[in-house]
Amino acid sequence: MNRRRGWRYLMFAALALAAGLGLDAGWIHAKAALAQVLLERAWAHSDHGRRTQRPWPWADIAPLARLSVPRLKRNLIVLDDASGQALAFGPGWTPGSARPGTPGLVVISAHRDTQFSFLKALRPGDRVHLEGPAGGSDYQVEASRIVDSRQHGLPAADAMDGLWLVTCYPFDAIVPGGPLRYVVQARRLNGGSG
Amino acid sequence: MPASRRFPSALCCLLALCGLLFGMAAHAGTPGSGELRLHDRAGHMQSLASLDTDVEYHVSGLVAEVQVRQQFRNTGKDWLEGDYLLPLPVGAAVYSMALDIGERRIVADIKPKEAARKVFEQARTEGRKAALIEADNGNLFRTAVTNVAPGEAVTIVLHYWQRIDYQAGEFSLRFPLTFTPRYHMQTGAQPGDTGIDAPQVFADDDASAPLRTHIAVRLDAGVPLADVASPSHAIVSERQGKLWNIRLRDDSVLPDRDFVLHWTPQPRTQPNVASFSQDVDGTHYAMLMLLPPQQQAQRLPRELILVIDTSGSMGGESIRQARAALDLALSRLQPGDRFNVVEFNSILNPWQQQAVAATPAALQQARAWVGQLQAGGGTEMEPALRFALGGHAPPGYVRQVLFATDGAVDDPNGLMHLIDERLGDSRLFPIGIGSAPNAQFLQAAARHGRGSETVIADTGSLAASMQQLLAKLDHPALRDLRVDWPAGSEAYPRQLPDLYLGEPLLVTAKLPQRIAKVQVHGKLADRDWTVPADLSTPAPAEGLDRLWAQSRIADLEDRLARGGNAEELVGEITRTALAAHLVSRYTSLVAVDTTPARSAEAALKHTRIPNVMPSGTHFAQTATPAELEGWLALLGLLLAALAWRMQRAAR
Fold it and tell me: Which pairs from B522-529 meet CB under 8 Å and 24+ separation?
């Protein structure tokens, strides 16, 4: 009889665990989707990222630029920080890389399972448009590569004139926090000496 | 009875699976190595220049004279100029620079910053070789060299003095080999904004051309040593009588982390008092180091206020470290102590409105409360400081405020004013959290809060750093320290800090004449404390004049930061720096060759030597646990189904 109760408890515990984990997983995706709506609104009021416009009153992030990929019909608001906190809501610009719209290397990261799941569909030749406080820039995808973040850091902001879109690799890895990154490298087309 | 066997084995399987998954998640974080390669704007790789750095330390007692030689080699086909951001230890008094071209040596002059830049610019356009060193921000210096011929190598040799740290019976020196990208980059500061002059450039790790660094230390500690060790690099040390020669085991290292060296005197020879003196042009300089007797006084009851920054920037590893640090602090409280915990991000959230007695029940409650804190929201530090410094401890209690933060704040000056105003009897101990806490903010907060800062570099060192801090706090401090120097003396630091267990008093003074002794006064918890310090047989030392001037400049800059008269203070800093031949925020060293080298037709190319990113600066974390959680949820469902079947089977 005791054994039966043990199994029953285990069943309820497992159900609760499953529900909790499932809800949290759903919440991560919901947050990513919902935040883009609020960010879209904040972006509209930010005068192309020139004014700091908080998407919600207690946010410590603000929209900085808009990233679009016409071929894949993607339109994303980029945040001004790339901390784990910021990336839960949207793609983040890496502070220390060039400001969006200026010459130099702009680095933008996002989660592989939410906003940047489309990176694997980007092909060389694809156009990417980035609209920021300093104006708009067009980029052309040149290559994608996989780097090991344990051995490689990000290059300096004036090392090249382009855009790096970074996400985790492999795309379907179950366990987060792996060392590999998928980097889409794009060249700037207009402005500067591109 | 198959079920009785299957139940534990199913559980074991699940646990093993979970363990495996989480084991995989905790991947090994080997630091990345960086090397130098230059790119031009179009993205083409240029390996035109390289820079070798040779660092030579001559340590004598509590001061060190350091020579840094930077060899800039032009391996390309064009005339080249280059510049490099050189981090030096905080408080380094840079007093000399020379430009070596083959056999010739050109010695630099000290000039006001703008004038030095003009001289350098003129030499640049006239095709003459020139070198410049100027202070950038904090402890960053910028070295620049121009008109280097194709295939040529020139060397910049600079010298500085620095003081050696002495803490808890151990001497140490730290040579920074790279620097953390400065935080105001986040708000998009541009070159020319206050606080940042030169653009910060880091090397692309892909590259192969090395940025080599050699370090050698000649150590004359003045006392017999028990041990010499470096926690940062592999070293080789040789003893020659009372001298020690230390060098890096590898011929050269990649400058991606600071070089740290510790040496420990033999137990019975640990110095309790030491004085050094130097006469320069009839002026007498003295440096006094005094270790107060280890205070055996009983542990004082205390009121401990723990403040934790839970803003969004503390997300991830940082908040875990901060929680662990606070938990350690709480676990050390004893019956009779009082405490409170405060969390802040955009809003202030105290655990209790008032400090409460540290009963086991209250402590347990507080630890549970700390355990559930999450990072999120903005950083509104002012109300938190106001709250933490606002309370009063009952008589007989010492009031200590521990403040765990990454210091990512915009307006440190306003906060410093607040600390000055509200400190009262409290003492503030900032704890720097995260891979790159704002060191300048932490130091300033500790200085204004009359405490000391602790930086937790990584999770591995968290327990040790916190234990050291808490051990220090367990013993009452020696307060209200002053030294009665004779009239006409000028001693720095002007306001002496409180001293905790194992911390020495270190003062540099300019005296009108030699004196035999001074009295040092202070207050222990229960009585006044006075001790004479003997200055009659000082060890002769060099560099004291420059270290004194450096301390004076630091004091003037502090007054400037607190809102003193800018014109007057800047003038005073410039005069002090020029008189002592020191590089400061307003003075630079510049050396110019007299003979033109580059003809007007030959073009000059500019190159910036990138710094190597500090080890641990990485790509952002770009995966969520959503997928893992999804699979684990599925696993949970399977297990529930299994349990349901087993339950029916056991009926």
Answer: B522/B292, B522/B478, B522/B479, B522/B480, B522/B481, B522/B482, B523/B478, B523/B479, B523/B480, B524/B295, B524/B297, B524/B476, B524/B478, B524/B479, B525/B297, B525/B300, B525/B398, B525/B476, B526/B297, B529/B292, B529/B478
Domain that holds residue A89: 2-188
Of A80, A99, A112, the CB nearest to B623: A112
Measured between CB atoms, does B626 come within 8 Å of chain A?
Answer: yes
Domain assignment of residue A193, yes or no = no
Residue in A158, A187, A193 closest to B201 by CB: A158
B113-165 confidence digits (pLDDT tens): 999 999 999 998 888 889 999 987 667 788 888 888 888 888 889 999 998 88
Number of structural domains chain A divides into: 1
Interface test with B, best of A1, A5, A12, A21 (most B CBs within 10 A): A21
A106 domain residue, yes or no: yes
Q: Is residue B63 part of a domain?
A: no
Would you call A92 and B203 a contact, using CB atoms and an 8 Å cutoff? no
The answer, as to whether pTM is greater than 0.80, is no
Q: Where among B416, B445, B473 does a domain terminate? A: B473
Q: Complex ipTM above 0.85?
A: no
For the segment B172-205, what is each residue's pLDDT rounded down to a tens digit?
Answer: 888 877 654 332 322 233 333 333 344 444 444 4
Say yes or no for a CB contact (<8 Å) between A176 and B625: yes
Count CB atoms within 10 A of the CB of residue B604.
Answer: 15
Q: Does the residue A145 lie in any domain?
A: yes
Residues of A in contact with B30 (CB under 8 A): 150-151
Per-residue pLDDT of B450-468, as tens digits, reads 888 887 766 667 777 888 8
- Residue ranges making up the domain that contains B14: 3-27+625-650
Percent of chain B with pLDDT over 90: 23
Q: Specify if B321 maps to a domain.
A: yes
**With a CB-CB cutoff of 8 Å, which residues 239-298 of chain B face chain A?**
none
Q: What is the CATH number of the domain that holds B308?
A: 3.40.50.410
Contacts of A81 in chain B (CB under 8 A): 186, 312-313
